[in-house]
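Each field is set out underneath.
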Amino acid sequence: MTDSTIRCIKDRASPGSVVLVHPLWGNPQDWRWVGELIEDAGAEVVAPDLPSHRSPEAGLLKDADEVRAVIRA
């Protein structure tokens, strides 16, 4: 995340929220340092644990459903 991105978030009246999605071999903790920067700028951060990370039976469709559910929440 660049300084200009952080400034942009801070300058907005309502920074909103950010969804951080980990890669296939990652986990939500991979985003911890990025999430802290975004939260410090005033936005809410959500980093869901994808179903495919929790269960070998889950796949891309379940992951996409999870991300959509987080965005809609």
